[in-house]
Specification:
The radius of gyration is 49 Å and the shape is rod-shaped. It has 16 helices and 10 strands. It is an alpha+beta fold and about 450 residues long.
Amino acid sequence: MPSRWWCVLVAAVATAVAAASRTRDMNDSTYYECDVGVVPTREWTDEAVVLVDNSWMSSSLTIAVAAIIMNAYMGVTVYVALVDEYSMWPELAKGELSACLEVWPSGHGSDISEYVDAGSVLNVGPLGVTGRIGWYFPDYVLDDYPYASNFDTMDVAHQQLVFSAFSNTVYDGPSTWVTHDKDICACNNWNLNVVFTESEEELLELVDNAIAQRRPILFYLWTPHQIFSKYSLVRASLPSYTDACYNQSVICCDYPPDNLLKVASPHTRDDNGAFRFMQLFNLDNNAQIDMLSDVAYHGKSINESACSWVQQNTAVWQLWVVERDNTKEVKLQVVLPVVLCCTFALVVLAAVVLGFATHQIRQRRRMHKINVELELQNKQLRSALMGSDTTDLLNAPAESIIHMLQTFLQDRTWTEKERARLEFAIGMIASRKLYAFNEAADVADSSCFAVV
């Protein structure tokens, strides 16, 4: 086989493997099936939504709750993509991913600056969960060492006692976790060794064993976490967090509180139904801890735990589901018919007004023409009356004689001589019956007189 065909074959196989890998990392909303007790009443979004699962348990549960509500109640097609928390940002900016609903901002300062502050990724508000990384120990340690939580204020003698009780050890998770526990110990001259475990499961197993034997143990963890539903733990007070401290290359202070964020692609904003839901969606620490506990200690799956929470908190999540504002359907089904009706009404009104105005103009022109003709005839009649030969009246139209009879006798501007001539002419015309007016004839076309 020619070498170029080997290249084509290798490329095709690589593409297929990549596509298959991508498919395995994507679950559609049918995975998050749940009977929420209602049936979708409408299509809330026009396109599928791709939510980001960063693979840790609280992230998976948060996404599962959102996917269940959007799919089971809102009728939205939801895909869930398993994407690393650091590699998701450019995909959100390009619209390949719709949203991530659990972001720990303390670990993403540069990403927030590059994408959120620049506007290529939208901050859609706080999730409602306050995350806090720190050092924790069982509360029974305080029975013997009531000052044990005040690491930042203990004197050297008390520090030695407490650190010795903890076997001078702080247990951390895997070394791949981003922590600065070694720096904290070194900066503060604390005689504590940081011991990394192989996994979170190994770390939690050490904690379970120590608490089962009521031994002091100091370990790195965060809240919300399922372990807080199982044990009463105390957070050690480390040197206070400051922005200035955290901006140093070597961090010597406590971990900051993290108000978890929701971020979304700007493309999601075009779909008001899904975007508005993401803005209103929120969980608190207790909700996450309850769901985490169901999975960790009660054998439930991610989907079962999220579904249980949704079923038990209908009054909470129904507040997140609101009518879409000014969507395409509303514009086409409501706004457009209203605009067309108003436009038609304006056209009809304009036609009526134009027709009426045209009629009025024609009437005025017609009346003006008649008045001009009558005025001319009146002038002719007056001229005939003023003359010595009243027989010129025989040449006047019949309507002029009628008009004369109706109006001129009432005219008080005549002189006595004129009035005498007018009365003589009228009497002569009336006594001799010189005319007969055809009432059916049109005024403009009627004959003047006919001798009877």
